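Human:
Class, as today's exercise, you are to examine the entry below, and be ready to discuss the fold:
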Amino acid sequence: MKVARAVIVALALLPLPAYAAALEGEAERQPMNWVAIGMFTLFVALTLSITKKAAQRTKTAADFYTAGGGISGFQNGLAMAGDYMSAASFLGISAQIFNDGYDGLIYSTGFLVGWPILLFLMAERLRNLGKYTFADVASYRFAQPPVRSFAAGSTLLVVSFYLIAQMVGAGQLIKLLFGLPYTYAVIIVGALMMLYVLFGGMRATTWVQIIKAVMLLAGATFMAIMVLAQFGFSPEALFRRAVTVKTDLALAAGSSPGEAAVKGRSIMRPGNFIKDPISAISFGLALMLGTAGLPHILMRFFTVPNAKEARKSVLWATSWIGYFYVLTFIIGFGAIVLVATEPGYLDGGGMLRGGGNMAAIHLAHAIGGNLFLGFISAVAFATILAVVAGLTLSAASAVSHDVYATVLRKGKADSASELKVSRITTLALGTMAILLGIAFEKQNVAFMVSLAFALAASGNFPVLILSLLWKGCTTRGVAIGGTVGLLTAFTLTILSPAIWVNVFHMTNAPFPYASPAIFSVPAGFLAIWLISLLDTGTRAAIDKAGYEAQRIRSETGVGAATASADH
């Protein structure tokens, strides 16, 4: 159970949404932080002014969904990194390293390994085949209604679970950092998100992400430099001091000198966090493949003008994300040295004031005082806002472009009506997110994050890979097989300790692992393969015959300017 709980916490720390403590219970409200609120107000004013300018240039569906395809590879790489480097990643991963040391690197490596998949297998093909959503790619050579219905349903499921977790995490985190009441925090996040998406579409959302990414990278860089400066810029000296601190803390807690030395050294080796091999592999699969199946990440490939810029996007995003995770490693060890030994940051029981995720926040105060603490708190809020906006945009696109324009209107909807449906959907999603965020305030919603990643890895990823790379894939295989992957992930998550024990309060979970990916991802691939193999109908013959044309376009980009509009 200890491992299971650890993995649940780990899954709560996934890229966008890592709000371990915030998601697992009510956060302790802190005194009103006026410096942080002032800095956040400045950020909001800046981004709203950008939204106003973006609104003047958002006239068509293409502007709304993809910023007219005018974002450069460098800009898009920063925005992708912004989607990935959430406040929660920042707070959660540094907290994990603060607690377990070296093992916190599992996040960094797991997240990064997913990006080469995007670069080598998907980036160019996605850009050449798609136009607005990943369903454009998945349905390219197949019958449109069944595949787009599956893709839209999958997108809405993934985004909904993600969005609820984000809203609850936002409310708890803001209450923790700013001292604002939970309900106000959720309403503010929901209202601002609707403003960005409704009026600025993808262009405003992209620039909000870029600004946030720059602020977060700058803040984390400053923290890492200030920590290393205290050790002559020697990481080795920092790690030695962290081992000494952990040893001293163990001695103070009553351990024998021998036990204390072992505990101190344990932060420099693996094994403190995930010990079960099945959980470790399943967790890793969810991290890697879930990233490549997240709708709001995939949608970013359509904001650049061509495949070359799409590849650049991934390279830049990988660089920024890799750099960011190196910084969190230094910040986590810096917190061990500078925060764990400072009584002012600890409560009566020797735990961090405000909860486990406060390690980086307290470190910000330790090295930069109230002003820098306010800056970092404002950045944390800004990251949540940007991620929520990106999620909402991808869900609105799935409804308006895939369901309304392609399935219901059979490709005959004009740009104005499609745009109108997008905005109505955004309003509905924003309202739903606020209401559900308030309703779930006191619930443990960490499982929603794990479920969102598992669904993306088990449904979207197998569909994309097999539809792009396997000639024998058919409409029926994609629609039914993808659904099998989704349902397997959903069912196993319900039967896992995260829900069966923690939510339903049953004694033993039928499925003992926290992440279903090791079983549900193969189930998705196997179902698509088997159903396609058994599919010998007329439509299957058309699907297979269309593979060569799809391959030529995906690899050369010939005709990509009209992608998805001509099928």
Q: What stands out?
A: Residues 1-25 have pLDDT under 50 and may be disordered. The first helix runs from residue 2 to 12. The CA atoms of residues 143 and 475 lie 6 Å apart.
